Amino acid sequence: MTRAPLRRTATALTALTAALSLTACGVFGGGSADEADAGDGVITFWHYYGDPHGVPLEAMLERYTEETGVEVEPRFIPFEDFGRTLQQQAAAGGLPDVALVNAYETGQLADAGIIEDLSAYADAWGERDAYYDAGWETGQVDGATYGIPHLADDYALYYNEDALAAAGVAVPTTWDEMEAAAAAIADSGAASYGLAVSGIEGAEGATGILLRTLAAGGDLADFGGGAGTAALESFQRMTASGGLSEGFLTWNEDDAMAAFTNGEAAMAINSASAVNVVRENAPDLAWNVAPLPADATEATFLSAENLAIGAGSGDADAAWDLIEWMQQPSVLEEYLPERNKLPARSDVPGAVTDPVRAVFADQLENAWAPTGETALHSTEALTIVQQALQAVISGSATPADAAAEAQAAIDEAMGR
Amino acid sequence: MRRDTPGSAAPGAASPGIVAARAATSPRPAGPRRRGRRRLAPLLFIAPAVLFVGATVVYPLLYSVLQSFFDIGLREVVQGGARWVGLDNYVDQFDRPRFWDAFAVSAVYTVASVALTFAIGLGLALLLRRPFRGRDVLRALILVAWVLPTVVSANVWRWLLDGSYGLLNALLRALGLLEGDLFWLGRPTAAVAAVVIATAWSFAPFAMILLAAGLEGIPKGLYEAARIDGASPWRQFRHLTLPQLRPVSLAALLLVFIYTFKNFDTIFLMTAGGPGGATATLPVYAYNEAFEFSRFDTASVATTVLMIVPIALSLWYFRALRKEQSA
Q1: Where in the cell (chain B) (predicted)?
Q2: ipTM value of the model?
Q3: Sequence-separated (6 or more) residues with CB below 8 Å from residue A91
Q4: CATH number corresponding to B91-326
């Protein structure tokens, strides 16, 4: 009596497993391209701009509707959920017509068949030469165009003029000067710390150490070749001297910027998107922006977004028209100052009349961005680099060992 | 019947037998149509539950396990064409020090959290055993920790422990025990201790409720007898309370273990697995594999391991329980 139900359950389970195995190919079969909707004339537009960044974007889309009569339906999805939502909708056949994607994910999305090849549109359009190379390259996958740069941003040095004056130091132009200045500021008590930068677990916290590595002549794919070691040693010296708070390992970019605006840190490394934040939160702070310190070379890190068309979009032509309209210099001149960002193209002088923002714009020419295989694995590579930084600062590895270990892990990630 | 402890299976399993027995003893046997309908009725009653559990638990579970035997990246999820690779993903993962690091972190985190949760839960249960003024208010307040959404509690802990403006450091500075800043969540050992304490803080009220119920069940007469025999309070606790509480303790330990072992949000919000992977438990590892690096296959290996450990422990528990009951 007691055996029978058990056996029945077992049989049912076996049948279920067998059925699942049989449908496995179907299960993992996705369902994207064949479910292309015929096109309803309404352009769905997905982005990850939360408040307040989404306001100018949606206002811009409304202007498009006013001008052309074409309806655009924007949808905000938080950054953390954006990639996952695209993946799920790709499998379910519910992709948007236009997606505003992180530039470094363009390759991965193209590789997965989530976004369309735009080469035919882009060639007919013929405006490639107007774009800065590093930004345009992020939209290229295997020689084809999958993303059109939407805007650009890069990293520069924010500094508190009063704190630097009180400590008697000049704005550092090299990393050696930066180390000395950060230590001098902390010693003088002009601020608790000289420098604030994000070093939190994960890719976000790798920006500072990557910028330092780029300046030393290295690269994300070439972290172990001496430059990574030099960069790690530099950060180690800065935390040891008190110029950089050990707590930067727990700070995200907003935390680092908060330390700058409340006067706790005299300098901070961040992108132009923080300009308005500092202006609003610290109206009385005497501050300015300078190019990032140099070492072997001068380099900054490009942060960018691309406009892409979702696979199977029934309104691809209309979606492209919108992208083209959004990239017109006259439209960008109105939009970018509100959005607090820089143009991805060099023919929009009216977008950077603000002297502070001009410092960021001037660096765009030599902004670095991962391309090809490096771009495909950039999140993982950045995570690995952050771990090396953490290991060095906590004293669990020497800079040379940590850099070598990171290089091995990056090579492996690229090969996988 | 004793085998069918998980409730829902029992009616479906038992009823056809009862129906058959009744039909056999009935003076006027029911017609085949009628008997068929009677057999069908119980199945229909359990069908919604079976369908629900099947669709929301069994299917995703098997899907995830199955995924661990395929080569699945972002492309395969979207376009299909995943290749069967057998145990390759397992071999790959079991070869990786990072996987075993995550497993070890999980083990340390879980064991420490369960021990601390149990100790605090038992302490609270004993404290609230005797009636005193404000006991109910206190009990309700303690329960807040269990009811509070993790996103709230984890961020509160993160702020409390912040190196520059955190409350803990402010307190230590006021007492003259600390000068300058100390970033608790930036140091590996301190970070592990912090997530363990935060976890125990939120799970302890749950353990308290279970253990308090267990304490209620201990016959008062046993304590009277112990007192007459001259047993000190400690001896009463050691030789009476603890052994009497054993079945409830085992259940509480098992449940807290399962909750903790699969716990993701507390750690993710407090440290994101940092610093340097010091708090990267298996769930955090699986999350990164799947959603940061788009390796759904190896993430499934991690989640499968994540599932096997509690299942093995539960089986051991039910076997022990059965042995105890039949003894």
Answers
A1: Cell membrane
A2: 0.74
A3: A30, A31, A32, B77, B78
A4: 1.10.3720.10
